[in-house]
C-alpha cells in the first residue's frame, strides 16, 4: 500500500493557518490591469488615481497638476504625442503648494548628445518653492519632452516627489533646468 496523506484534522489545521497568512487587512484585490489616464488638456490628477499611467498628448500649452504629496502616491507619465510648439509655450507638471521635486532628468538628442539635471533631496526640501515645477518642451535646450518620453513621479513622504525622467529634445541639450521654480 502507498503512503497515506495527512488526516482531515491536519488538513483543516493547514487550511486555517493558510487563511490567516493570506489576510489582506481590509485591502481589495482587483484586476492587475494598470489604470490609464488620457490627458489632452489641462488636468488635475487625484490621489485616488495613484498608480496610473498618464498618456499625455500634448497640443496647445497646458499643465498637469499633482495632488498634495502623500507617501506612496505614484504616477508614470508618458508623452504620447509631442507638441509642435516653440519653447515659449511649454507644458508643465506642477506640484501642490508647498510640495517639491527632487531626482534626475536625462535629456537626449538624436545626435547622441545628452545632458542631465540632478536635484538632491536636501536641495529641494531646503527651498521647496525653487523646485515645484517640471518644465517640458521638445524644442528647448534646457529641457526636453518628445514622443515616448517618460517621467516617473513617486511621493516618498509628505511634501516630496521623486522624479526620474528620460526626455528628448530637438535642440542640443545643455544646462538642464527641467525641475525649476514656477
Shape assignment: elongated
Strand content: 35-45%
Order of strands in the sheet with most strands? 1-3-5-10-11-7-8
Number of strands: 12
Main β-sheet: number of strands, strand sense, barrel status? Answer: 7 strands, mixed
Tally of contiguous helical segments:
2
SSE string: HEEEEEEEEHEEEE
Helix content: 10-25%
Query: Which ranges are low-confidence, i.e. pLDDT below 50, for 5 or more consecutive residues?
Result: none
Computed Rg: 22 Å
Average per-residue pLDDT, rounded, comes to: 86
Tally of separate domains = 1
Distance between the termini: 79 Å
Structural class: mainly beta
Describe this structure as you would to a colleague.
This protein is mostly beta strands and 182 residues long. Helix content is 11%, strand content 38%. It contains two helices and twelve strands. The strands form two sheets. It has a seven-stranded mixed beta sheet. Strands 2-4-6-9-12 form a five-stranded mixed beta sheet, with no helix packed on it. It starts with 7 loop residues before the first helix and ends with a strand. The mean pLDDT is 86.
Key features of this structure:
5-stranded mixed beta sheet, about 180 residues
Question: What would a concise description of this structure say?
Answer:
It is built from two helices and twelve strands. The chain is mostly beta strands and 182 residues long.
